[in-house]
Amino acid sequence: MRIVVTGREGQVVRSLVERAAHQASIELVALGRPELDLTRPETIRDAIHAARPDLVVSVAAYTAVDLAEDEPELAHAANAVGAGIVAQAAAATGAPVIHLSTDYVFSGEGEVPYMEADPTGPRSVYGRSKLDGEIAVAAANPHHLILRTAWVYSPFGKNFVKTMLKLAESRETVSVVSDQWGNPTSALDIADGILRVADRLQTDAAFDAFGIYHLAGTGNTNWSSFAREIFAESSKKGGPYAEVKDILTADYPTKAIRPLNSRLSTDKFFDVFDWRAPKWNVSLAPVIDKLVEQN
């Protein structure tokens, strides 16, 4: 199966490359700038057409959540217009599209995990651009699977885990918000979930359960407890450690509003694909191992 994925350097792309390397039936082609630039629509169609995909995985995105408040046009161009053209280009080659989305499409209200059919209500430019992207993808390609995820980390790129370990190299205490809740999700688990979907699409010619799914780590926590688990795992390996001080979102203002509730229910994904990500703290341990080893 020839899988074309948008982007080259992101956490999920690099995780897909790592995981796909162990599957002989998968040929993974990563397309990034300048060959494929989400803000330059003319590059998207040509790059995807030339790659001859059996499946397109739409991962590349504008992810600077706070900066998006100052660059709404750029965020919309990449996350909405660009994503729609990726899906359209996939449809033109006869390929289904898997599109990665986010918990930011929800308002962040309530204290229970969001279901796929729950009303959306993004409160940031980034969240709105991603929701518009979902709408564009669905309209452009009937054979779409939109996978919402949250709190992504990995050994690659920039993420909360790497930030915490870096801060602990120079600080004895770090302040972390305790009133935002979500599912920490390893990008390696996202890659495994995507490849599970790809296998189903390849082996089940009658598959028709297209639509929106949530794909995230199992279980939930808040950011400060997540940080404590990071440092606990790091200290076991002789890596950086710091004490964590709980603060509230109000104590750490940001330009973009963060959802207080980012919990996502993954029951639908499990029901259809018979796969669920490991417990979030179980997936965290090998990522910490690799990061500590690298340092």
TrEMBL record:
**RmlD-like substrate binding domain location, by residue?**
1-291
According to its UniProt entry, the protein's GO biological process terms are: dTDP-rhamnose biosynthetic process
Name the source's superkingdom.
Answer: Bacteria
Report the EC code(s) recorded for this entry: 1.1.1.133
InterPro entries per the UniProt record, alphabetical: dTDP_dehydrorham_reduct (IPR005913), NAD(P)-bd_dom_sf (IPR036291), RmlD-like-bd (IPR029903)
- Co-factor: note: Binds 1 Mg(2+) ion per monomer.
Q: Mind listing the UniProt keywords for this protein, alphabetically?
A: NADP, Oxidoreductase
Q: Which residues cross the membrane?
A: none
Which is an annotated GO molecular function term of this record? dTDP-4-dehydrorhamnose reductase activity
Query: What is a single Pfam family found in this protein's UniProt entry?
Result: RmlD_sub_bind
This protein's record includes keyword Endoplasmic reticulum: no
Cofactors (names): Mg(2+)
Q: Could you tell me which pathway this protein works in? A: Carbohydrate biosynthesis; dTDP-L-rhamnose biosynthesis
Keyword Oxidoreductase attributed: yes
Extract the SUPFAM superfamilies matched here.
NAD(P)-binding Rossmann-fold domains (SSF51735)
Query: What reaction does this catalyse?
Result: dTDP-beta-L-rhamnose + NADP(+) = dTDP-4-dehydro-beta-L-rhamnose + NADPH + H(+)
Q: What does this protein do?
A: Catalyzes the reduction of dTDP-6-deoxy-L-lyxo-4-hexulose to yield dTDP-L-rhamnose.
Similarity-based family: Belongs to the dTDP-4-dehydrorhamnose reductase family.
Name of the protein described by the UniProt record: dTDP-4-dehydrorhamnose reductase
Q: Which organism is it from?
A: Phyllobacterium bourgognense
